[in-house]
């Protein structure tokens, strides 16, 4: 199980974007290569409020959460517990 994301902080966004795309491509290639003997998956939630953002001002965290929420069909970002359930599944 691999983890990819949607981007990164402003000071490292390009590295995070490249890294996340690399994970996506690696998972796709491994899934084709290893099928049907094994499954390869990645969890790739969009922005999620985690301790990673603890040093960001609360107003900025809220603004980021709202910005991402507007791009998601559920109109909200996932909670940490919801993302964890995907790994357990």
From TrEMBL:
Entries under SUPFAM superfamilies matching the protein: NAD(P)-binding Rossmann-fold domains
One Pfam family named in its UniProt record: adh_short_C2
InterPro entries on file: NAD(P)-bd_dom_sf, SDR_fam
Protein name: Short-chain dehydrogenase
Taxonomic source organism: Gluconobacter sphaericus NBRC 12467
